[in-house]
């Protein structure tokens, strides 16, 4: 989870600066143990064309990073609880008493700690967003707020898709009596599937579809986008010279017309 939080810092910071946020975050998440992606990002985050960062970046990034890490912990705990409980109900041979008690203790701990961290920081983030009066800081904070929601949506849909494919594919194999395929091999996939769909539904209903969110979105769209800095050799727009006016006959004279007939 701490590694996820560090990857999310790179993701949100790169998002604010207009960098390739997804690429940097994936590099940090998968090969960040070598610290090379983190070092490279710290070098290049202030190099080249980038969006000017509004005041209060540290505080708003902290709230959304910790909120995301807490929600991830909550999701992992709920998924583990549902999956191990399903496996236990299906077959006692799949997971023994000791293993089930350990999984139960771990999942409940993750649910309590992750849920408390997520709820506290998420409520603080929403309250802070509504209280900001300065337009530049509000726009940057709402942009990060919306990025958080879209990222959560995307990750939840990916989890739902993968677990749903496993549930359907292995379930059909079990229905067709494929050898060595048992219900305990596919029914526990209901855990992450249900939790992911629950995350999508709750955030959609209580975040995107609320009146307060739509009001904040209207204010966000009315504020001009921040300036792009670090652009060298900007080419100024030069007016194109207009063509000279067509020659006209002096006033009081009659134009001569020639006819070939």
From TrEMBL:
Residues 241-261 are annotated as: Disordered. Coiled coil: none annotated. The chain crosses the membrane at residues 20-42, 62-83, 103-123, 148-173, 185-206. Residues 60-196 form the DUF5671 domain. Pfam families: DUF5671. Keywords: Membrane, Transmembrane, Transmembrane helix. The keyword Membrane applies. This is DUF5671 domain-containing protein. It comes from marine sediment metagenome.
């Amino acid at each position: 989870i701490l590694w996820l939080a560090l990857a999310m810092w790179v993701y949100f910071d790169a998002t604010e600066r207009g960098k390739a946020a997804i690429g940097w975050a994936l590099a940090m998440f998968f090969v960040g143990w070598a610290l090379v992606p983190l070092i490279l990002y710290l070098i290049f985050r202030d190099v080249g064309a980038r969006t000017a960062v509004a005041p209060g970046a540290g505080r708003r990034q902290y709230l959304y990073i910790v909120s995301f890490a807490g929600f991830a912990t909550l999701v992992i705990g709920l998924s583990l609880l549902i999956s191990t409980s399903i496996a236990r109900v299906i077959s006692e041979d799949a997971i023994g008493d000791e293993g089930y008690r350990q999984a139960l203790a771990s999942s409940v701990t993750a649910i309590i700690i992750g849920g408390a961290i997520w709820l506290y920081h998420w409520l603080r983030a929403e309250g802070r967003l509504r209280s900001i009066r300065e337009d530049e800081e509000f726009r940057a904070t709402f942009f990060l707020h919306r990025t958080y929601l879209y990222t959560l949506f995307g990750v939840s849909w990916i989890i739902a898709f993968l677990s749903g494919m496993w549930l359907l594919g292995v379930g059909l194999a079990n229905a067709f009596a494929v050898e060595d395929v048992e219900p305990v091999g596919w029914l526990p996939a209901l855990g992450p599937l249900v939790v992911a769909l629950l995350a999508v539904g709750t955030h959609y209903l209580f975040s995107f579809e609320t009146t307060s969110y739509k009001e904040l979105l209207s204010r966000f769209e009315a504020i001009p986008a921040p300036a792009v800095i670090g652009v060298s050799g900007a080419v100024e727009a030069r007016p194109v010279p207009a063509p000279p006016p067509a020659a006209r006959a002096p006033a009081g004279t009659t134009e001569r017309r020639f006819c070939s007939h």
